User: What shape does this take?
Amino acid sequence: MEKTALYNFHKNLGAKFVSFAGYEMPIQYREGIVKEHISTRQTAGFFDVSHMGQLFISGDKSSEKNLEKIIPLDLKEIKTNQSKYSFLINDKGGVIDDLIITRVKGGFNIILNAACKDNDIKEIAKCLNSESKFELRKDLSLIALQGPKSESILETTVKGIKELKFMNGNYFKFLEKEIYVTRSGYTGEDGFEISVPNENAENLTKLLSDKGAKPIGLGARDTLRLEAGLCLYGHELNEDISPIQADLKWAISKRRREEGGFNGWKNIKNDLLNGVSKKRVGIKPSGRIIAREGTKIFSSSGEEIGVVTSGTFGPSVNAPVAMGYIQSKFAKVDNKILLEVRGKKHEGVVSKLPFYKKSYVK
Amino acid sequence: MSEKKYSKKHEWIMLDGETATVGISKHATEMLGDIVFVELPEKGKGLTKEEKAAVVESTKAASDVYTPVSGEIIETNQPIVDDPSNVNKDPENNGWFFKIKIKNKSELDTLMNQTDYEKFIKDNPN
Assistant: This one.
């Protein structure tokens, strides 16, 4: 079991640990998931996401072209320090992983899911030639700072970050070392992700904590992202789900949607032209019933039409929230559905996403 | 009222005459974290010892609550259904789950007293 550079720091903060993707990660701290969630929405919270892969790819123009085989973005249109959300696509048009890619001097930084990163690198390597070099940066930690007070907290520690726009990044100095900060996140709040050398990760996090940011575990990370309607790999996304089914058409660049030229194009093109038979939707169960992953979804006439992929109680919405896949003809917002929980069918409706309104700095 | 007893599944029970009040232990609430959903049995329902009686859900997962004794459900605690955080706030008093008309008082003898329960959770931390 691997540990991040902040393991002892978490321990001292009273973290409860779980094993996640081969890492011992904090699921919650002393205050618990609901308070951590609310703190992130009302002030700011910091998250250790160092288990995620930070892949640096360098190379020439051919690397960019080759990467486009597996990433359906118009990479040449991404400006230096600009970030984009997209995915690695397999031959069937399914999602190998979802990612954030940022153009930096000399190449690209790609943030990958912890459970997928080793396989991702193999899949990416298949597309690249010997001109390209890639390195999984195990010497770097990744700290997310999220919530409305993130900017004021981070600016006192790292001057200049307030100039960053959403989905943009830059290099800054912290304790004489270079760090890379992007304005992005996974909570539906304004915030930053900070790539910092392992030896300074605790110093940085301690400063954020001293300035009022609360430690947030994986438990609240999940409730926050679910309220924000964001996908979690292995739940809303997998190798058998296409980005079009996942309602993530926007994460494929316009030129690529017209020209193709990436893995699984045949199937994606078909999805784009002819529509999809099932799609990802938001789901609001009525009352307080929680429809968890695996909950079967039925139409009001009793026909089985889909399944829940993530579900919990949303502390800011103050109601249960879920996402899942249902047959497209039932996917209209406000459509009544039934959710089978512990053998009983409970009412619910298809909901627009996100459940919680975002406040990104544009 | 008699002594409060505990089951290995972390329910507490307190007998008062022919009826007993049942809830989940403070230790159980600490293990579960924030409780966000409670489902209670219907009044009049007959249950046997260790049968599923209620459901609690935290943000993380759903767990069953079992009845530590056999009997008939005579009352349930609606305030914990309306606001499940009431269970976390006061698990062993106001956060009670149901009252059960007890069938066989000798079933209580198989349960632990507070000292034994504290030892039990120390030996079985999860």
Chain B has a mean pLDDT of 95.
